[in-house]
Design brief:
The chain is α+β, with helices and mostly antiparallel strands and about 150 residues long. The chain has 2 helices and 6 strands. The chain has a single domain, classed as Hotdog Thioesterase (Thiol Ester Dehydrase, Chain A, Roll).
Length: about 150
């Protein structure tokens, strides 16, 4: 696949993310290191209205999303990083055994005014589980090299 530059994307284009299986051991390892709340460490934690059983940290979900994004299409582009995230929502718990998939939709294209070698694409990303339920969505701008700059 040829490297994709800013000019190769179109508004409304939908890009598939790579699938990822969520493993119990990975949930616990991530939580132990970065988010050691009880419901991310032990499925026997007393359930509440919001928690029932072991669930991945939202930050773990973001990390898995980033891998899905890279494996899906990002590594085959002229991506130059992102200046940040505009909106991030965790909609449903991510559980051991879940099979995550998702899409990135191009919602805006604009050329950088201050750096003419860069184009900025705003995406809406959705991550779903095996039942098609949205577990996470986010919107953010991503900077891409322009073809002329290459």
């Amino acid at each position: 696949m040829a490297k994709r530059f800013f000019e190769d994307f179109e508004i409304g284009e939908i890009l598939d993310l790579a699938q990822r299986r969520v493993e119990r051991a990975d949930i616990i390892a991530f939580a132990a290191e970065f988010d050691p709340q009880p419901f991310h460490l032990d499925e026997r934690t007393t359930p509440t209205d919001l928690t029932a059983g072991l669930s991945a940290s939202g930050w773990h979900t973001c990390a898995m999303f980033m891998r899905m994004l890279c494996d899906g299409y990002l590594l085959e582009t002229s991506c130059m990083g992102s200046p940040g995230i505009e909106t991030l929502k965790w909609r449903r718990p991510v559980r051991p055994g879940d099979l995550l998939s998702g899409t990135s939709t191009v919602i805006e294209l604009r050329e950088s005014k201050s750096r003419p070698t860069i184009g900025i694409i705003r995406f809406r990303h959705e991550v779903t589980n095996q039942s098609g339920e949205v577990v996470m969505w986010m919107e953010n701008p991503v900077m891409f090299e322009r073809r002329a700059a290459a």
